[in-house]
Amino acid sequence: MAIRHYHHHYHFSYVTSKKRHFSSALIVIAILTIIFLTLFRILTPERDVNLKQLSLITIFLATFNTLFRLLIAYFFSLILAVPLALAITKNDKWERWLLPIADIVQSIPVLAFFPIAVLAFIRFNALEGAVIFILFLEMLWCIVFSMIGGLKTIPKDILDAAKIFNVKGFNKLRYITIPAIFPYIITGSLLAWAAGWSILIVAESLHSYIPKGNPNTDPLGLGSLLVNSFYQGQNTVFLVTLITMIIVIVVLNFFVWQKLLHLAERFKFD
Amino acid sequence: MTEIINLKDVSKVYRTAKVTAVADINLSINQGEFFCMVGPSGCGKSTILRLISGLEQASIGKVAAPQEVSMVFQSGALLPWMTVEENVSLVNKVKKISQAKIEEQTLKCLRLVDLETFRFRYPRELSGGQRQRVGIARALAIEPKILLLDEPFSALDPVTTDDLHQYILKIWQETKATIVMVSHSIEEAVFLSDRIAIMTNGKIQEILEVNLKRPRNEETKDFLGLVDKIKKTLES
Fold this sequence. Notes:
heterodimer, A: 270 residues, mainly alpha, MetI-like fold, 9 helices, globular, B: Rossmann fold, 2 domains, six-stranded mixed beta sheet, 7 helices
């Protein structure tokens, strides 16, 4: 009987712990990546980039810088998108007010905020912040609207079951709402990263918005390398940077997004 | 007989759609009773179930029912990202009870519906009937006083439905819970219930007692006679 009980207990905890270990591993990897990239950036301060003698280290550093900015912007977008989407769809009354407001705000081109953002961040000597802020604004609405779509497709029976079984508050968010909209979070994130990549070139080459700015004041990244090498006629640098960017996007697509999209299938209702 | 559910002069109006779902409902259901409501689509059967469960509030009148109410849904309403065991245990996980007690209760309920060996499967790996049995196990996991069944067998084939009828009767007899079921099938209602409410246009037309011995045979004269009587009441 004791063995039987142990056997049951083992299997019961095994299934849940395997999932928990997987999600814990993802969180640990994400945290370590952020710490690593932050340290990497602190230890290797930006310097004037000589485009005529560009080394692989610079390309590597530019790639990491760009990924770092996208990651930070994505992290903040995701953190803000969850409460925003939940608030907008909280009830009919909130939706009637908040959805049009969100719709208007998201329709304002993100570059309209750019000069203001640059000037504001220059005051605090934090140009990096301006780049991340623009990327964040570009990414945010993709995730928010995708999540709103997801929240509206949760079957009524599921919501009724949550009420009947008293699954509410944080428990509802953890066990029902977030998993139910997981496929939409992934789709939104995919679109957000695509939007991030597309705005990156403008976001990183912000010297034209800075009084007396020059290409060397741009934060080093794949976007700024592309723009500056193009304007300085450094075709090899331009080509290498472009190929690097394509490789990074393809690798991310293959090893991150494809896996996540596949995983999201498990979270879809019939 | 102790009364467990009471609806007094209950009406439910959906103001946005300007629809009166049910009107002037007076209904009393006894503890341990198997009560069924039959009628055409849109006659208000499910609304009464939702009023009893607390999912809806009455516009007029009073609904008295205990808090310990559980429900089995037509779709099963299972979470596809959770295993059978996780689906069933979730309803107790949100309560402040020990993990050991949750596991014990989950396995007990899965045993009741013969799904103990399927506990690590996901809903998508189960048949329609098995999914519905998981829904029943989940509903039982909170040890409800009242079990509400909202057309739980309507999407299933006849063989599976017959199978599930036996499970429901076994569970009813073992748990002594009060069962209130909504069904489109008159035969199903006569086969399972102690009393049947016949509903049309948001009103209860008649409540019939089913004085047939269990196990019931669907081919006996008394059974068929009762089915005919209900059909005639619905047609009239």
